[in-house]
Recover the amino acids of this structure.
């Protein structure tokens, strides 16, 4: 684990820097702390930070850059006749890496000497058999250019590694020396350390922006790739979804939209009335004791992982619905346990606490004076709720429902396990249908080749999902915010 | 004042009294009672769903913690297991599990005959279907670990096959076996007799909690232990990245950030990220960490990175709330006696806010522990997590599963014996989540300060 050692080395250097910086400042002040601009530990920290930050930054950048540079160099070594497109180039590259790893293992186990691993040729040796001996299984015989590329890969990796070690240590030492030289009793060490710390804080805060940028970029690039392979009009307005990795797939998003919409609709039909009534009861009727017990219990539903709900849908609710609406129940509406209804009901249960706690907050924010006024005029409690509190809270409640809808649309595990895999446009809620999230999972799991339209479509689906949920969230936030301004 | 002398008696008709409900009052009171009943009904329904969910989990999951074992003495003949007789493990390893199978079958037949249990099959060796197909491997591993056992008669505790196990748990019935190629009803008769003779028992199965996943045809052997280790390494990554980054980001936003466009942008981003569907984070992980940075697929490190990005907004939001709860007088006092702004935050505000921060972090971790969807996209399924990682580096970098991904994997396998495992896995997962949440509540109760 040489990289770990390198990190430890830089850390050790930093610690030495801390001690040296501190004592240098102290001795410069003649041992009298009052002569120093800052507290002694700031001088130490200054050297520590000046050592660690350049060292670790160089390490990080190198670790990101080196594979990319080597990848580019090696892929230019592979003759163009060996591959037809980017996808098969990737396959060849992974072969190269596997052979290189195999050579590494062979050297480690002593089956090959270092020179042999470097100079071995396919013309003279059966590489596959040699590597098989040390437990590296290769799918096919090793081509000459693959072996050459693999050997070059190993050499470049080793050289790159040594240069990296040198560069990291040089950067750390440079920072160390610079900071230590500047240390004297008048040096404003605290200001310097605080400036660096503030920079780190800003960097951490900016990570959120970076994440969003990452999401958007990874979605956009792959979506553009997809639209190069498959016309956008067919994607957005096609009514058939039948991907086949052999080619000739039809990738229309409409059946997926319909499935998503139908499942979410059922979920909201379950969750909104129950959640809303529960919230009204908890905030307007329930005594403090009932509230203290019922509210956390309802919120337990929100803390249960979605995989649990998925299993509940697949193994409990599905068979239960089959007994009532399936062949056995005499109605014959349902063909299998997986259906829109199964997933919708369970998702509704999941959303109850979401709707209830959001609405609860909003109802509580309605000023008491409005209730008192209504009650004073002789209205009953329920009339007050229906005619005064709910209308006042309406924008907030609409916002809560929108948030719940966005949650329902983006939910994955319940629909993967409960809703089925068949893409169809049907009105029967007891039929299996599929959703956007389900298709993302099924198109991207397994050893998919990322260059095919069938895999890339998942990114286009993800993009659509991201845009829809983002729109709903922003709309909800705008509505809620507008409402809050009324009473604060 | 003459206006008031006008007739202003109530508009109600003759004979009305405050003590007697009019039809209208009755209707209004009934509506009131109905409305209240709806509220109670909604809460009762919500609680009913909670109870239904929990009871389904418990009743379906408890059997996974028990397993049927067969205890028999197996004679280990030297002629078959170590032909050369020099007890060299490398040499003995050449005898595969196929070589061990007849040894175990013979031992089982002998044990049955010794107890006087009749074997109703045309071919006596068919009785071995009672045992799990993992039994030969188990005996072989024991023998290879201790070659001196060859030639002796050793007591082994072997797994029964999943269908025999299901029979004792009520999952498998004789009628169902009529359509089953793997086992006949006669096997169950023998199993019943073996239980009476003390050869077979259903007991607590620690291997389910600590063991590794098994192939699709051997549900009796599968355990959640390896994926638990995978989850553990992922949580280490999440904790070591999300806590410092989240706290640093919150400190900046709450204490230092000036009101400008960049700060606004960060705030909007954080609140939006909190609501982005988790599967989108999976897509991000796939594109950035695996496609772009070429990190290994299915590795807990990648899973941890994705979950870190996902939990960061949660941690930032709760950390900001607890920083905000520290009263400004603390900051003012520190500044007043000459501390710098940074010192007042790190020496005074942060320690006071720490209990709240830790509570929020634990809740964020619990959320990350139960998350499945992003893990599916970075390749944590369709993979049998059968080996414990050997060391810290391999724990982070070698392909592994995680608890929720393992549960999903089991739920996908068609065998009902795996459904039982999936429910059992959920019990373990929920126990972890419950413990974390209880710790969070205790932390809050114990250290929370009201200002």
């Amino acid at each position: 684990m040489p990289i770990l050692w390198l990190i430890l080395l830089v850390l050790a250097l930093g610690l030495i820097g801390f001690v040296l910086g501190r004592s240098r400042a102290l001795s410069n002040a003649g041992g009298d702390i009052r002569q120093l601009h800052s507290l002694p530990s700031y001088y130490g920290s200054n050297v520590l930070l000046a050592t660690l930050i350049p060292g670790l930054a160089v390490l990080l950048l190198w670790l990101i850059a080196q594979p990319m540079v080597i990848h580019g160099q090696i892929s230019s070594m592979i003759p163009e006749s060996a591959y037809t497109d980017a996808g098969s180039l990737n396959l060849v590259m992974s072969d190269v890496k596997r052979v290189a790893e195999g050579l590494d293992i062979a050297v480690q186990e002593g089956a090959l000497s270092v020179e042999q691993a470097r100079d071995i040729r396919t013309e003279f040796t059966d590489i596959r058999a040699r590597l098989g001996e040390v437990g590296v299984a290769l799918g096919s015989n090793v081509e000459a250019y693959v072996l050459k590329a693999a050997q070059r890969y190993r050499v470049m990796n080793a050289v790159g590694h040594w240069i990296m070690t040198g560069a990291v240590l040089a950067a750390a030492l440079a920072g160390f020396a610079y900071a230590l030289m500047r240390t004297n009793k008048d040096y404003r060490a605290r200001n310097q350390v605080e400036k660096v710390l503030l920079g780190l804080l800003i960097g951490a805060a900016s990570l959120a922006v970076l994440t969003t940028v990452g999401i958007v970029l990874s979605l956009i690039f792959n979506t553009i790739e997809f639209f190069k392979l498959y016309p956008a009009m067919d994607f957005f307005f096609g009514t058939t979804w039948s991907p086949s990795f052999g080619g000739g797939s039809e990738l229309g998003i409409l059946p997926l939209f319909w499935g998503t919409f139908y499942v979410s609709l059922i979920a909201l039909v379950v969750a909104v009335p129950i959640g809303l009534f529960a919230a009204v009861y908890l905030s307007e009727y329930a005594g403090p004791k009932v509230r203290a017990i019922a509210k956390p219990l309802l919120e337990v539903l929100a803390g249960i992982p979605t995989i649990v709900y998925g299993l509940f849908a697949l193994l409990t609710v599905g068979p239960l619905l089959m007994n009532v609406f399936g062949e056995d129940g005499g109605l014959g509406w349902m063909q299998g346990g997986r259906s829109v209804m199964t997933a919708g009901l369970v998702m509704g249960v999941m959303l109850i606490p979401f709707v209830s706690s959001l609405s609860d907050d909003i109802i509580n924010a309605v000023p008491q004076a409005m209730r008192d006024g209504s009650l004073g005029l002789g209205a009953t409690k329920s009339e007050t709720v229906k005619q005064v509190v709910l209308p006042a809270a309406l924008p907030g409640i609409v916002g809560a429902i929108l948030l719940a809808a966005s949650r329902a649309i983006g939910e994955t595990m319940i629909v993967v396990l409960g809703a089925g895999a068949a893409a169809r446009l049907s009105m029967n809620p007891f039929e299996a249908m599929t959703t956007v999230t389900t298709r993302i999972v099924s198109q991207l799991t397994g050893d998919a080749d990322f260059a095919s339209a069938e895999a890339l479509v998942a990114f286009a689906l993800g993009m659509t999902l991201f845009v829809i949920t983002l729109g709903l969230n922003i709309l909800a936030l705008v509505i809620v915010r507008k409402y809050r301004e009324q009473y604060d | 004042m003459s206006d008031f002398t006008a007739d202003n008696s109530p508009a109600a008709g003759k004979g009305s009294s405050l003590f007697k409900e009019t039809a209208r009052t009755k209707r209004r009171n009934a509506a009131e009672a109905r409305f209240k009943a709806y509220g109670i009904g909604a809460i009762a329904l919500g609680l009913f769903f909670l109870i239904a969910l929990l009871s389904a989990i418990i009743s379906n999951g408890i059997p996974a913690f028990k397993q049927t074992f067969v205890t028999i003495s197996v004679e280990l003949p030297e002629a078959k297991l170590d032909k050369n007789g020099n007890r060299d493990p490398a040499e003995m390893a050449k005898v595969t599990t196929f070589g061990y199978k007849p040894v175990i079958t013979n031992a089982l037949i002998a044990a049955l005959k010794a107890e006087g249990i009749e074997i109703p099959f045309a071919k006596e060796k068919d009785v071995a279907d009672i045992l799990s197909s993992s039994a030969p491997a188990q005996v072989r591993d024991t023998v290879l670990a201790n070659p001196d056992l060859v030639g002796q008669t050793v007591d082994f505790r072997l797994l029964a096959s999943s269908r025999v196990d299901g029979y004792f748990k009520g999952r498998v019935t004789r009628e169902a076996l009529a359509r089953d190629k793997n086992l006949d009803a006669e096997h169950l008769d023998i199993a019943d007799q073996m239980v009476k003779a003390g050869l077979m028992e259903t007991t607590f199965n620690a291997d389910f909690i600590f063991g590794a996943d098994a192939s699709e045809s051997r549900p009796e052997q599968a355990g959640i232990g390896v994926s638990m280790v995978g989850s553990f390494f992922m949580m280490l990554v999440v904790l070591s990245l999300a806590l410092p980054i989240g706290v640093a980001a919150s400190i900046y936003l709450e204490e230092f950030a000036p009101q400008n466009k960049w700060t606004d942008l960060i705030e909007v981003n954080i609140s939006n990220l909190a609501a982005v569907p988790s599967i989108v984070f999976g897509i991000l992980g796939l594109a950035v960490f695996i496609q772009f940075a070429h990190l290994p697929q299915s590795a807990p490190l990648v899973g941890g990175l994705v979950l870190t990005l996902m939990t960061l907004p949660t941690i930032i939001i709760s950390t900001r709330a607890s920083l905000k709860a520290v009263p400004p007088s603390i900051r003012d006092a520190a500044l007043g006696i000459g501390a710098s702004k940074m010192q007042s935050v790190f020496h005074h505000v942060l320690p006071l806010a720490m209990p709240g921060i830790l509570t929020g972090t634990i809740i964020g971790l619990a959320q990350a522990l139960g998350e499945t969807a992003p893990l599916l996209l970075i390749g944590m399924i369709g993979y049998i997590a059968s080996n414990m990682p050997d060391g810290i580096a391999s724990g982070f970098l070698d392909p592994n599963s995680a608890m929720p991904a393992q549960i999903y994997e089991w739920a996908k396998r068609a065998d009902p014996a795996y459904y039982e495992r999936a429910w059992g896995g959920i019990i373990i997962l929920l126990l972890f989540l419950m413990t974390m949440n209880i710790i969070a509540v205790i932390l809050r109760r114990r250290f929370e300060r009201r200002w």
Chain A has two domains: 2-187, 241-487. The longest strand of chain A covers residues 241-242. Chain A has a mean pLDDT of 85. The beta strands of chain A are 241-242, 250-251.
